[in-house]
Structure formats: structure tokens, C-alpha cells
Amino acid sequence: MSEALPPPVVGILALQGAFREHGKVLRSLGVQVVEVRQPRHLEGLGAIVLPGGESTTMGKLLTDWDMMDPLRERILAGMPVYGSCAGLILLCDRIEDSDQPRIGALDAQVRRNGYGRQVDSFEADIDIPVLGPEPFPAVFIRAPVLTGVGEGVTVLARVGEQPVAVRQGSVLASSFHPELTSDARFHRYFLNMCTECGRTRP
Q1: Is residue 57 over pLDDT 50?
Q2: What are phi and psi of 95, to 5 degrees?
Q3: Does some domain include residue 184?
């Protein structure tokens, strides 16, 4: 029987967006959290969260502050990452009608503001089987739409026919904001994924 691994130190990209809300959830689960604003903050992390916000602004700041390349290298090398909303956009390797900077670690195509503008934001109870039988209260705010996913991408949840949560190896992403609910199951799933990746990584 293998010994349980301790939770990783989780970084949260804190350049812009809903990073404080993610931090609050992760700390409630007993995780040490580091707010990432400079390349040196990436050292010692076991995983990272890319929050919702403005993906174009985040991408520009990552590039201007020389963080894009070291962050991409760590993610492509297998460091677990979770991106919500704008974080999902940054992770996708294809963004419709945009050449904005992106990490490109997720084999998927995305359309920004796919559900409409701020006034079109909505909440929905969705089925996410990996979280258990109870529906998850998903919050969609100017949410992106995944318009295509590669063969190696697992769809974890849909709204209608539309994928809204996906996983590819150590990359997890969602169109919705789990940090804006009182339900910590999605973050707990990410932490379990981190443990799984830690056991299987050479």
C-alpha cells in the first residue's frame, strides 16, 4: 500500500481576475497557496491555477513580465494546471479569431464570450460524473465555448452538447467558475488529480 502524498503547494496566477476566490477555496481544503506575480514565484510549486478574468490582459502581462515561457515549460513538463474561464482560454492551443498570447497546452479550440456578454451570464446545475451523483452549481460569466477538442481530451461535463469541463492528462479546464460557489468538489478533484499525476510522473 503506497503512502499518501501530501497536497502540493499550489500557485495561483495573481496578475488579474478572480485569484482571491480560488485561494480561499484551496486554503479551506488545507492547501498551501502562493500568489504568482513574478517568475521567481513559480519555484517550488507542485501545481498552478489560472483564474477567470481577461485572457488578453493575462496573456499580455505574462509575456511582458517574462513569465509565459517558464510557465509553459513547467506545464508542458507535467506540472498540473487548472484553468477556469479565462484560464481555459490561455490553456487552449487554438483561439478563434485571435492571435493573443496563450500557453497552448490543451488540444482544443475555443471561442471567447461564446455564451454572450456579461448580461448573458447564467448559473446551471450540471452533471459532472467524476464529482459524484449530485449536480454541480456551475456559474458562467462571459464564458468561453469550446468549439473543438482533440482525441486525447476527455470531456468531464457538458451543457447540452457543449463541453464545459475537460481534462487532458495533467491539464484541467472549465468554462465555468467553481470558485464562486460554496461547493469545493471541483477544486478537490483538481487536488486529487495533482496527487495522481505526482504518483505517475517519473
Answers
A1: yes
A2: -120, 120
A3: yes
Select from 120, 143, 126, 137 the least CA-distant residue to 53.
Answer: 143
Question: How far is it, in rounded angstroms, from Cα 30 to Cα 126?
Answer: 26
Which tens digits make up the pLDDT trace of 120-175?
A: 578 999 999 999 999 999 999 889 999 999 999 999 999 988 999 999 999 999 99
Alpha-carbon distance 29 to 182, whole Å?
12
pTM over 0.85: yes
Distance CA 71, CA 66 (A): 9
Query: Known catalytic residues?
Result: 85, 177, 179
3 occurs within a structural domain:
no
Domain with 22, as residue range(s), is 10-200
Are 119 and 143 within 8 A, CB to CB? no
The stretches of 65-126 forming alpha helices (DSSP H) are 68-76, 86-91
Domain with residue 190: its CATH number is: 3.40.50.880
Report how many domains make up the chain.
1
